[in-house]
Amino acid sequence: MDVVAAPRTGAAEPENRNYSAAREPATPPEARLVMPVQSFRQWRAEDRRQPAVPRDWKTPWLKRLFVFGGGLALTAFGAWEMYNVVSVSRTTSLQYALLVLFTINFSWIALAFTSALLGFFGVLLGAGRAERAESLKHRTVVVMPIYNESSARIFAAVAAIRESVEATGLGDHFDYFIVSDTTNPDVWVAEERAFLALRERLGPNSRVYYRHRPKNHHRKAGNIADFVTRWGGHYEHMVVLDADSLMTGTCIVRLTAAMEADPDAGIIQSLPLIINRNTFFARLQQFAARVYGPVIATGLAMWSGRDGNYWGHNAIIRTRAFAEHCGMPDLKGKPPFGGHVLSHDFVEAALIRRAGWSVYMLPDLTGSYEESPPSLIDISVRDRRWCQGNLQHSRIIGAKGFVTATRQHFATGIMGYLASPLWLMQLVVGILIVLQVNYARPEYFTEEFTLFPVWPRFDPERALRLFALTMAILLAPKLFGLLLTLFNNKLRRAGGGTIRLVVSALIEVLFSAFFAPIMMLIQSGSVFQILLGRDTGWNPQRRDDGSIPLKDIIRRHRTHTVLGLVTGLSAFMIATSLFAWMSPTIVGLVLAIPLSWASGQLAIGLWFKRHKLLMTPEEGAPPAIALRANELQAEFEKAGYDDADGLKALHGDAELRHAHELMLPYGQSRRRGEIEPDRAVAQAKLVDAETIDDAAIWLKPKERMVVLHDRALIGLLASLPPVEAKG
C-alpha cells in the first residue's frame, strides 16, 4: 500500500474554491452492456434480424440503376472516345496504358456526376425531410469524445447544445457525457476544472457527466466502446459528436424522434455543415461544403437508401444494437494494414447493417455543424490518417455478410485515395508519350510489314472534345450546388447575393485547381508510404486559426516546388502544347509554398469575408447556437483553465484536488513489489522537491500523468509548500 508523506513544515494552506459540484459523482452509476467482438470471416444469414416494418424497407433500385448504370454508360462512352483519340494509327503500349488509366479515372468522376445529378433533383423535390417532434419516449445521451482539446471550446459547445435542447421543452429526455482520452496532463486538469465550473453554472440536475480514460486504447472507437459498455444500458439512443461538433436542440430532437418512429433504424446520419472558419483555405472548404455538399449528400442518401454510411459524428445510434454488433476486432498483423481499425465509422455502419438494422441519412435536416482544419498542411495531416484508414478497408471489404451497397461505400473510400496516384500515373504516361513522339526514332521495320513507321499519333479534335466533356462532368456537381443556392431566395441573400455567389464559386474553382496537384502529390505520397508499411499514428487536430511558421511550410512543400519546376521545364522543352496542357498542374506545384502559406492566413480569409466573398448562408445569418457557443467560449477562456499549470492548479485548490481524486478509478493500480520506473522517478522528484515550483519544473509530462493518476502521489504533491520557506 502506498504511503503518503506527512505535510512538510512551512506548507501554506491554499485558498480553496467552493465547488459544490465536486461533491456530486462525475458519472452516473454504471449500467453495463456486453459488446462482443465481431468477426469479418464468420457470419450466418439467419443471424440477421428481420425488419419490424417490412413495408418501409424499400431498396431504391431505380435510383441505383440511374447512378451506376448512368456512370457505366458515361464511362463506356469516355473510354470509346479515348480509344478513338489514340487509335488514329497503330496503338502503342503506352497509349493502351493511357487508355486504361483514363478509363479508371473517368469512371470515378462519372459516378460522382450521376450521383450529384440525382441529388440535384432530390433537393429540388425536397427528399429526406425530417418531421418535427412534439414528444419523446426514451432517454438519449449526447456523447462527445475528446482528445487533448481546448476545454473552453469543448465545454462551451456542450453548454450551448444543452441550452438549445432545453429550449425545445424536451430537455429532460437527454443527458450529456464528455468522454476524454486526453494524454496531456495540463489539458486533463483544465477539462476537470471546466467540467466542475459548468456543473456549478447549471446547478442541480445538470445531467452533464465527465469521464477520463487512463489509457486511450483503440483511440476514438475504444473511447466510445468504453462508454457503451459501462453506461450504455441507461440510454436507448446516443447522439455521437466530434470535438468540433455543434448541433441545435431542434436537430437533436428531430433525429431522436426519427429513430423512435423507425424501429428498424440503427444509425441515422445528419449532414454537418462547416461553420466558424476564417482562414483562406478553411473558407474555401466552408463555401464548397455549404454550396456543393447538400447536392452530393442528397444523391448519396437517395441511392443508398437504408444501406447508407456513417461518418463517425453528428449522428444518432441505437445503443443496444451498436453494443451487440459493433464490437471492433483488430486486424491481424502490424499497422498500417493491421492492428486496430482507424476509420471505424464505415466499419460500424457495415456491421450494424449486416445485423439487419438500417443506416441512412437525413441530408435536409438543418442545425448540424462542424469545423474544418485551418490550412493545407493541417488537412494533409488529417488526410494521412484517413488515407491509412480507408486503405485498411481493403482487408475488410470482402467480409462475410456485408450488403453490396456497404461494399460500394468501402470501394468509394479506397478509390478516393487511389485516385491521386492513378492521376499521377496518367500524367507521367502522357508525358512519356509526348516525349516519345518528339524524340524517339521511328521504328520503320517491325515484325509486321508496314509502309509507315510506328509512333504514337492522336486525333486532336476528338481529344479536345473529350477534354471538354471531362471538365464538364468534373465541374457539374459544383454547378448544380450553385444553381440550387441561387434558386433559393433565402440562401441567395444570406450568401451575399447572385453576383457575389457566382464570383465566390469562380474563386473556389480556380484555387481548387491550384491546390489539387499539391494534394495529388501529398495523397500519392501517403499511399506509397502506407504500401511501404509506415504507420501514421494519431495526432490531435489543430483547430485554431493560427498560421504555420514559414520554415515548416518550406520544408513540407519544397519537393513539390522542385517537381513543378522540373516538370514545367521538361514539358516546355518537349512541346509547348504539352506545357499548355499541363499548365494548371505546373502552376499549382510551382506555387506550392506561397499557396500553402496563403491557405493558413487569417488576414486573407477575413479580407474575403469583409468583401462578402466565399460567404455561406450561415455567415450571413449566423445560427443562434453558434453565437451562443462563441459567447460561452469567451467566458470559459477568461477563467484561464487552458493556460494554467495543472499541477499548480491541483496544489492550490484542495476542493479541486478532492474532486479530481473522486473522479479517479478505484482499485489497486499495481501489485506490491512491482516498481514502475515512471512512478518511482515521479515519487523521488516529489520527495526531493522543496516547493511546488520545483515539482512543476522537474516532472516531465509522462511523470505528471503518473502523479495525476495516483492518490498517494497527489498527497505528496499537496504537502509541498507553495514557496520556499525563509529561514
In summary, what is this structure?
Its main location: membrane. By secondary structure, the chain is α/β, with parallel strands linked by helices.
What does this structure look like?
The structure is a single chain. The chain is 57% helix and 6% strand. The chain folds into 2 domains: 31-138 and 236-441 and 457-621, no CATH class; 626-665 and 673-719, no CATH class. α4 links the parallel β2 and β3. α4 (185-202) crosses α22. The chain is built from 27 helices and 10 strands. It has helices at 61-86, 93-125, 151-167, 185-202, 219-231, 249-261, 280-291, 293-304, 319-325, 344-354, 376-392, 404-439, 460-487, 489-494, 498-531, 550-574, 576-590, 592-599, 602-610, 617-620, 624-639, 646-652, 654-663, 677-688, 692-698, 701-708, 711-718, and strands at 140-146, 174-180, 208-212, 237-240, 246-247, 265-270, 273-274, 315-318, 358-362, 368-370. The model is unreliable at 1-15 and 449-455 (pLDDT under 50). The chain is an alpha/beta fold. It has a 7-stranded mixed beta sheet, sandwiched between helices. Strands 5-10-7 form a 3-stranded mixed beta sheet. It holds the Pfam family Glyco_trans_2_3. It is a multi-pass membrane protein. Keywords: Cell inner membrane, Cell membrane, Glycosyltransferase, Membrane, Transferase, Transmembrane, Transmembrane helix. Residues 1-28 are annotated as: Disordered.
